[in-house]
Amino acid sequence: MKYNIQLVGVGGQGVLLASTVLGNAAVADGLEVAMSEVHGMAQRGGSVQCSVRMGQDILSPLIPKGGADLLLGFEPAETLRNVTSVDRDSWIITNTSPVIPISVSIGQGGYPPLDDILAALRSVNDHVVAVDATARAVEAGRAITANAVLIGAMTAVKGFPLSKQRVLDALLEAVPAKAKDVNVRAFELGYEEVRGE
Amino acid sequence: MERLLADSGRLLLLGNEAIARGLIEAGVGLAATYPGTPSSEVGKVLENIAATAGMYFEYSVNEKVALEVAGAAAISGVRSFAFMKHVGLNVASDALMTLAYTGVRAGMVVMTADDPSCHSSQSEQDNRYYAKLGLLPMLEPSSPAEARDMVLEAYRLSELLSVPVLLRTTTRVNHARGAVDLHKPPRPVAKGVFEKDPRRFVTVPANARALRVEQLKRMEHALKLSESSLLNCVFGTSSRIGVIASGVAYTYAREWLKDVEILKLGFTNPVPEEKVRRFLAGKERVVILEELEPYLEDEVRRIAQQHHINVEILGKRTGHLPRAFEYSPDLILSLKDILPVRPESTPAEQPDLPLPPRPPVLCAGCPHRATYYAAKKAVGSKGAIYSTDIGCYTLGVQPPMQCADLTLCMGSSVGAAGGFSQVTDQNVIAFIGDSTFFHAGIPPLINAVYNDHKFVLVILDNRTTAMTGHQPNPGVGREHGGVETPSIPLEPIVRACGVENVRTVDPYDLETTTEAIKEAVESGSLSVIIAEHPCPLAERKEGKLKRSTYGIDRDRCVRCYTCVSRLSCPAISKDGKDVRIDVTMCIGCGICAQVCPKDAIGVRE
After folding, report:
1. Best label site of A182, B103, B271, B547, fewest CB within 10 Å?
2. Do A20 and B12 count as a contact with CB atoms less than 8 A apart?
3. Mean per-residue pLDDT for B16-40?
4. Chain A: residue nearest B41 by CA?
């Protein structure tokens, strides 16, 4: 078994944290893990990609195009920018809250309407789940838990190799003690968004 | 990070954490660095745990000093580690090339973290050639777990050969993450004794000539070690088609090639000649998979030629593989005409919906943005040549600031400003960060005074080394590993260099900063402005940021978009016709309020 997850977003959104949570959960599950992360200049508000691969006979930290079983986008335009990482059978989970890049503010390009982005995603694949992670996070109690929502959502995807409890445990290891409850709520809300899709 | 001190267990580690763990398992007594991506996280780990592990660790003022500090330790019998990004080794190379003559008494390892594809660098130079240049043994890991193992092996080899060993990593090893099984660390030896031996350690010409002969003999021994090393071995199924691979490219080859025999080279200087000869013999075709320059390929071609082996060798020299940029699984899959690949899936096609570019930018509240805004206002329509340097502030190249016209290397802003001012009649403004100024900005500033160059130097003093993850520097003093030293203030250093026209301003005060730069430019003499304000990202990390947020009074706002288009703060964007400040990003620097011509921006209640 090999399971490949591509996580994408904007520097500062917590993409790195989410990948580490997944990696730790996979190691706890006894799987082999190889990951690749972005540190340094790109973290200053630029596009960020992290890959997490788990299973057996895993060596490469990178995923070939079309090889991601799951694409998790923290920002809709970034999800679409990286859509060639999936094939027809993969899953795509995308947050629906845009982060408008400065290039748009200074007139170097337009940010497409959200509906157009979602339609474009759905044109490549039938397994697209759009989650308003920020709204669910606010519902859970804090906007900052949007990445817990997305991690929960991912855990509910058909074929995801780790149990819900395993991922939740790894998430709770990574957050401050006083923020555990709100993260559990956020994770559960995300999980419910995808369950049954 | 304390988990990295455990005696046993299995941890998911970043390549750089695995390397730091390797140092602890090797009983290293001293480590020194200047921060540089992709090597920086090794220092972040050591800053926190070295003292507990019994190791001395320092951020040196630059890579050359780091290498000299570590060299003296190894000469005194203490295992040492100097580490840096690839271009850092350019700075340190002067010391390294002579250490390669004198050799060392305890193990010394030098890590060069190369950056194929320039993820965070100004070049993708291939530092494996330093191993050849200095006749230094070299190891190249392909994963975090292997990086830890190779640190241990590098110390063994360094002590067998009495010479520093180069550990050459790349971004996809330093910033990969994988599981590592921990071994019980020994007690490190942090104190040694220096025994005098001037014939070995004082490299006057007569001694250097003798050492040169020694060095060549040492490489003969190193070749034997490379021939028998388990780091150079064959994987895969017996086949007439072979692959010779090193570094992370090996992992791609293992996963996406089938029915090939792979010679993995981990000990790559000297290249194991006999092993390569045996691998080539009987093969129809051998493909060389290595990132950047044809370093191994040229060696393999030489070996084939010397041993009269007639085998088809494909690589960069034949145009089958690229020389620029890092390799990837996709690259391996694209080699289907020359190698049997394992295609797995059909990638989705990119839908035809244009997306806005998203390059990295200066953060919300970044004091550099304010300084750039002030500088542009100060020079007005006459403009200036902006000679800039290495750091977050290089991002000032992006519109609308465009405050970067030349970037070469650490410290180059100051040296180049001297050249610009000598041969042009344009305004010249140099920008350099505080850490970069200490690293390589002082000699060129003295040069400017000495040779009467006339320009304005703005030291962007954000009280940290920000881009690499907020390491301390001499300007803020030291407070880690049980050593405390006070800050070394910039202004007296600048004055001691001989600059008379010096002024310190807070860039959050736009008016004063603009006026100071204007005055300096108009003075026509060599001037230094120290624009001092702490990096808000660092302040937030340390819980020191007193955050307020700003909002826009929609009745007063006349939709002139000065704040959006001329300041380009990531927290400010257009929302239809209105302007919106994102409260989750705004840190309350108040620069936008100073820029607004209608006083429509203020602190949100």
Report:
1. B547
2. yes
3. 98
4. A39
For the structural domain made of B2-227, what CATH number should be given?
3.40.50.970
Nearest to A105 among B248, B348, B564 (CB): B564
ipTM: 0.96
Rounded to an integer, what distance in angstroms lies between the CA atom of residue B270 and that of residue B135? 8
CATH of segment(s) A2-194: 3.40.920.10
Threshold 0.90, pTM exceeds: yes
Question: Which CATH number is B367-541's, of 2.60.200.20, 1.10.10.60, 3.40.50.970, 3.40.50.720?
Answer: 3.40.50.970
**Per-residue pLDDT reduced to its tens digit, A117-169:** 999 999 999 999 999 999 999 999 998 899 999 999 999 999 999 999 999 99
Tell me the pLDDT of chain B averaged across its residues. Answer: 97
Pick from A82, A92, A105, A117 the residue to mutate for testing the B interface (most B CBs within 10 Å): A105
| CB-CB contact of A92 with A83 (8 Å) | yes
Alpha carbon distance, N-terminus to C-terminus of chain B: 40
- Distance in angstroms (rounded) separating the CA atoms of residues B11 and B6: 10
Output the six-digit token pair for B22. 């390797």
- CATH class, range B550-603: alpha beta
- 3.40.50.1970, 1.10.230.10, 3.40.50.300, 3.40.50.920: which CATH number matches B232-333? 3.40.50.920
The DSSP code sequence of B555-605 is TT-----HIIIII--TTEEEETTEEEE-TTT-----HHHHH-TT--EEE--
Residue among B44, B254, B257, B358 with most chain A CBs within 10 A, to mutate: B358
| pLDDT 10s digits, B368-379 | 999 999 999 999
Q: Looking at the complex, does the CB of residue B356 fall below 8 Å from at least one CB of chain A?
A: yes
User: Which sequence spans correspond to the domains of chain A?
Assistant: 2-194
CB contact under 8 A, B351 and A77: no
Residue B473 DSSP one-character state: -
Which of B38, B120, B347 has the CB atom closest to A87's CB atom?
A: B347
The pLDDT value recorded for residue A41 is 64
**Separation in Å, CA B382 to CA B3, B161, B399, B426, B522:** 57, 60, 18, 8, 12
Boundaries of every domain in chain B: 2-227, 232-333, 367-541, 550-603
Contact between B415 and B451 (Cβ < 8 Å): no
